[in-house]
Amino acid sequence: MAAPATNGSLGLPVDAQITPATSIEYWTSISSTVDGMLGGFPQVSRIDIAGSRTFIVKLLRHSQPCPDLPPPHKVRLVTDTGAGIGRITVGLLSQIAQHVDVVEPIPKFTEQLKIDHPELFAGANPIIQNVVNTGLESWDPSQTEPPRLYDIIWNQWCLGHLTDKALIAYLRRLIPALSPHGWIVVKENVVNSKAENPKSSAKRKRVQPATKVDEMSDSNEVRQSVDLGDDEDEEPDLYDELDSSVTRTERKFDRIFRAAGLKVVKTEIQRGFGKDLGLYPVRMWGLQPATVPSGPQEGPVNGTVS
Which superkingdom (predicted)? Predict the structure, then answer.
C-alpha cells in the first residue's frame, strides 16, 4: 500500500492543497452564463445534457423510486448540487421531476436562475421549492425541515472542491436523504492514464464556503489525508491552481464510494464531446447504498480502505 498521491513542491497530498477561499474567489469572478459555467466550452452543454438524460433513463429502468407517477414526471423530488445558474436543473432535472431543490454556494448564480426562469418558481407549488446557498462540505440534507427524501441527488463538476475526507463525509450524509430505490449520481472529469495529456477541462467546478486562506494554510484538518490504498503505479490526482480543485482518477472515485458506504450500480463514460477539444474524460456513476440505511451514517471518515 502506497502513501497518498502527492502533487506539487510542498509534498502535500493532492487534495490537501485545496483552498476554499481561492475557489470562492474564482467562481465569484466568473460570469453567470453557460459559457462561464463550462469554462469557455458552452458547446458541450447540449451533448452533456443528452448523455445525462440517457443515463437517468437507464438508472430508472434498473430501480424506479416512483413507479406510480403519471407522465411526463419520472421522479418526485431531486436536488441539483453545485447547481450554478441551473443549467442542469433547467435542461434536465425540472423536465423529469415534479420538484427540484437547488444547492449552490454562490448567491449571484442562483439569483440569475430566478431572473432567467421565473416560471420554475411560480405558483403555490413551484417546481423549484428550495434554494440553499451553501457549499457541499456544509450542506446536510437531514437538517431540512421538514425532512426531504430525494429520488435523485445530482452531483456534477463540483466534487473536485472537496478533499477526499470531506467528500466521503458528504456522500455519507446523502444516504439517509435518499428515498427507497433513490439514486446518487456523480458526473465528473477523471484522470485515466499517464498517456493522456488534455489541454483543458470543461468541468463545472464548484466550491464550498469561503475560509480565510491563512486559516486554511495553518489548519491541521486540511492537511490530513484519507488513506484510500492508492496504487504506486496509479496516475495521481491532478491539482488545478486556478480554482483550487482536484481531478481524481476513476480508481480513486471507486475507493471513495466504497469508503462512503455506496455501491456502483451503473457507470458510463460521456460520449460526444470530440477529441479536438482536448478535454478530460467525463464519467457518470449511478450509486446506491451498499446496505439499506437505518439512519445517519456514522464512524470515522478517514479510515483505511484496501
Answer: Eukaryota
